[in-house]
Design brief:
The protein has about 350 residues and is of the alpha+beta class. It is about 25% helix and about 25% strand. The protein contains 9 helices and 17 strands. Strands 8, 9, 10, 11, 12, 13, 14, 15 and 16 form a 9-stranded mixed beta sheet that branches. Strands 1, 2, 3, 4, 5, 6, 7 and 17 form an 8-stranded antiparallel beta sheet that branches. The radius of gyration is 20 Å and the shape is globular. The two termini are about 35 Å apart. The structure holds 2-OXO-4-methylpentanoic acid. 2-OXO-4-methylpentanoic acid binds next to loops. The site of 2-OXO-4-methylpentanoic acid has 6 residues, from loops. This is Branched-chain-amino-acid aminotransferase. Belongs to the class-IV pyridoxal-phosphate-dependent aminotransferase family. It comes from Olea europaea subsp. europaea.
Length: about 350
């Protein structure tokens, strides 16, 4: 049958076993890669005009073994999501912000970059081409992963002579295996995630491989993930491996200020605005580890994690729990406000939603 033939074809080209959307258990998606029909890919050179829509069947890509991304880590990625609304419309959340952040990162990593308009157009085209992989309303989202990489050969350390802009997508559900239940974090006191003057504030690929060692150790000890402190004083809260962090105390909300070592999350920025519009006092400032441990509620934000309440934090062998391990009222309220907006269930007063 058709699905069998398709699977044979896909097996030949891809490492993962392919499924058809009709075979997906939408209630148990998790955050695992699943190949879809199309990807966007275009190559370009410094100073050259970026070409238009380049969709092709999803599949492995060819790279020169000497490519800048493989040898010297000249690469950036983005993450955003498309939601299916109950009326069938497809909604994107602030895609222009991802386009802008990619441009900031490209400047730091010495790469030419598509304009924000070109970025958004490419995202839209990729989502529409893969429409059948967008989960039904309320069952998850289509995670969109744009990548910008130095794909030309460079042996001596230098910017790559050629660049590739690529977008692939995958249907996803909850990021953490805990689902929507609070996560348990451990504070890393030895290895920092980022250092002043480094690349912690841009979404470069190397920032993520660098945290795997601590993450694996944390998971082996039963924790969901790692929370990092600043590299100089080892006293100020920075972020979690794949998300930003917020603390709530006496109804006031604080999050580490963007200072070069913290990833400027689009969910982070959106939550600050949503919380302020609901009358919360929100401060972007230095947050000490003592304040973190003394907080009423702690939650994480990110495109992949959305808003994840934190149930406990372990620091130097001492475990502090929040809200008796349950979801705090502020985290719950902000989670509902944000997801209602993203799924088209609340009025989009700030013009953040793009309907395709
Ligand atoms: C995202 O939240 O989109 C990210 O890029 C984090 C990633 C490590 C899953």
């Amino acid at each position: 049958n058709k699905s069998h033939i398709r699977r044979q074809h896909l097996k030949h080209n891809f490492s993962s076993v392919a499924v058809e959307p009709a075979e997906i258990d939408w209630d148990n998606l998790g955050f695992k890669f699943m190949p879809t029909d199309y990807m966007y890919m275009t190559k370009f050179y410094e100073g050259e005009n970026f070409s238009k829509c380049e969709l092709q069947r999803f599949g492995n890509i060819h790279l020169n073994p000497c490519a800048g991304i493989l040898n010297y880590g000249q690469g950036l990625f983005e993450g955003l999501k498309a939601y299916r609304k109950h009326d069938g419309n497809i909604l994107l959340f602030r895609p222009n912000e991802n386009g802008l952040r990619l441009r900031m990162g490209a400047e730091r990593m010495c790469m030419p970059c598509p304009s924000v308009e070109q970025f958004v157009e490419a995202v839209n085209a990729t989502v529409l081409a893969n429409e059948r992989w967008i989960p039904p309303a309320g069952k998850g989202s289509l995670y969109i992963r744009p990548m910008l990489m130095g794909s030309g050969a460079v042996l001596g350390l230098a910017p790559s002579p050629e660049y590739t802009f690529l977008i692939y997508v995958s249907p996803v559900g909850n990021y953490f295996k805990e689902g929507l239940a609070p996560i348990n974090l451990i504070v890393e006191t030895v290895t920092p995630r980022a250092t002043p003057g480094g690349t912690g504030g841009v979404k470069t690929i190397g920032n993520y491989a660098a945290v795997l060692k601590a993450q694996i150790a944390a998971k082996e000890n039963g924790f969901s993930d790692v929370l990092y402190l600043d590299s100089v004083h080892k006293r100020y809260v920075e972020e979690v491996s794949a998300c930003n962090v917020f603390v709530v105390k006496d109804h006031a909300i604080s999050t580490p200020a963007i200072n070069g070592t913290i990833l400027p999350g689009i969910t982070r920025k959106s939550i600050i605005d949503v919380a302020r519009s609901q009358g919360f006092q929100v401060e972007e400032r230095l947050v000490t580890v003592d304040e973190l441990l003394d907080a009423d509620e702690v939650f994480c934000t990110g495109t992949a994690v959305v808003i994840s309440p934190v149930g406990s934090i372990t620091y130097l062998g001492k475990r502090v729990t929040y809200e008796s391990g349950g979801v705090g009222a502020v985290s719950q309220q902000l989670y509902s406000s944000l997801t209602n907006l993203q799924m088209g269930l609340a009025e989009d007063k700030l013009d953040w939603i793009v309907a395709l």
